[in-house]
Give the backbone structure.
Amino acid sequence: MNTGSISRDLAGMFQGIVGTACVAALALMAASARGEEDLLRPEDAFRYHATATDDTVVVDWEIAPGYYLYRSRMSYASRTPGVTLGAPEFSQGKIKEDEFFGKQEIYHDSANIRIPYTRMAADADHLTLELKVQGCADAGICYPPQTWTTDVALQSSGGGTSSSNAAPPAGAPAGKNLLQELARDPEFGDSAREFLPPDEAFVFSAEMADPYTIRAHWDIADGYYLYRSKFGFDSTSKAAQLGAPALPAGKSKHDESFGDTEVYYHQADVLVPISRATPASGEMELEAAYQGCAEGGICYPPIKRKTVVLIPEAQASEQPSAIAASAGAEPPAASEQDWLTKILRQDSLFYALAIFFVAGLGLAFTPCVLPMVPILSSLIVGQGPKLGTGRAFTLSLAYVVAMSLVYAVAGVATALLGKNLQAAFQHPAVIIAFSLLFVLFAAAMLGAFELQMPAAIQNRLVAVSNRQRGGTIAGVAVMGVLSALIVGPCVAAPLAGALAYIGQTGDPVRGGLALFVLSLGMGAPLLAFGTSAGTLLPKAGRWMEAVKKAFGILLLGVAVWLLARILPATVSLLAWGALAAYAGVLLVMGSRRSAGLPGQLAKAFGVGAFVYTALTVVGAAAGGTDPLRPLAGTPLGGEQAPELAFRTIKSVDDLDRAVSEAGGRVVMLDFYADWCVSCKEMEKYTFTDAAVQRALRDAILLRADVTANDATDQALLARFGIYGPPTIAFFGRDGTEQKSYRVVGFVPAAKFQSHLEGLFGSG
């Protein structure tokens, strides 16, 4: 469904809710033991008097005490060929805070409407005027939309004749009970009937169909029906999160308020998948929202009922199969992370691990993993010219295995404890310390100093090294551990899928293996790079020194890349410029010692580095922030794509308030952090895309900045079972999260646009 369809749906919803909600209390009155109040017929509650001058039709409304009319539900039309009406001029009404529609302008006592008209035919002497109105009693009882017609004489003078409904129709004495009159009206049924209270017309219950699926059931009385499009479910329970409900197909019905829609007669079963926080048994409070009518036009307002559902203990081998087994059910679209969770739960261990290894390969060249390439390569290069292929492979394997083990352990701890351990390592003090460590390594490779020890200690270490060379391997492994925790704390769909599996089943072994294999897939290219470094590097001489300096520059680049998470964007841009200037100096100085083509290339690259430095200085002075496009966003950089206008929220209360105020619009919630590399990718490449912005133009855009990772941030993440950014959650027009459309990790613009089309198309 596109955004235009959403707008039409919202308009239809606005029009329809009045018709369906307004007569709800009538049903309650009919069944209550307190007796029935006498209500005026609509013709008696809302009397009109229509006159015409030479160019204007005037409609004066006399509204009975205790009743009112909605201005927004008034319309007037000509049913006489040759006579056309202009835009009505309404008298001033009063503002009422309506339970269903918010602020509405209403008329008590009286209203005056002036409608200009034009006679295309000079001999037209009368106008058949159609009046459409809707009103309510102050007691909260409303009437269905009313359509009346009347003839108004047209005269050239201002005296005009009049028409009205001042006298009630024969057989409809004022004060007669409206419910009884409607029951006898041919439009609402042929025989008198009393309308059931909503809890008798629609008997609601809920139970677990299996350990991962709730079955919500309604017994619907004969002559009543429920709207398929009006179901919604919510829960504040921490024991489980609700997924998108699977709604069976209904019967087609043309509804006066909602147009062509689907309804359920006799009974309805809706299956709601859940994501469990623990395999232990427990209970959750389920809130179901629904709306229905009695056949013949008497409708109930939206209904919300709560019930407690007992969740049975789940075994790791059990499958959430109820939705798939439900005949006629339409299963919700599965997100990538849900699909991976399902594979872990249902398929063989070998197949699941193979899928996660391939997924890891797909993440190997993302910005979260690429900085590890110069880190590992510099460790290999730092071993000196005597390093062989076998030794390079061993060191690389130590780095990758250590990284993978920590990745798996941190993931299991995150799933079981509900706290992202990697996020804790994004504290500014940790980032600064690790960046300084890289600066020291880089300085050593650039020849700024050599780490020397007393001769006695050096001899002792050499002797130990000759017997056991594990010290170097341990050092490389430590760097692998730190890299997993600090350099690459990105959240992606495969990670979220494995964490969700652990959280739902409490099985850390299978989930931990998936995380370990996922990380091995991410590290496979690192292993290849590290091993090739031991094979392809020159063994000695000037080129070896040049290679060491190149890796020293790369290590400085990793330090700047880390510091960019906590530095102001402009300062970060200047830091990249300073690094480029230093690299330019090394290249120009090196070109003087190299003859021929190598020297010329070094000089050219050095000059290019100086030019880049100049661009960063100019860009930073003009407010630029992007190191890849220093002049972007400045007058010299040309027009820049506009950014999405997010409203920042902090707490769970902020979110609940924003969703409740959305007014039936789709809500997108973006979880963001300054230290999240993929978040900045989404911001730079996806959210600036014109097609994506068009798709989101009717949505409410919220952003939860969890950079601080404080208690408030963690509570908001825990509300959704989210382990870290980037994660994007969507809330439908009924205010419930569409969990099957949750996005985890970086998604390119074209894929994200397609995802949005599926979301809006789902309603």
User: Anything to note?
Assistant: The first helix runs from residue 3 to 21.
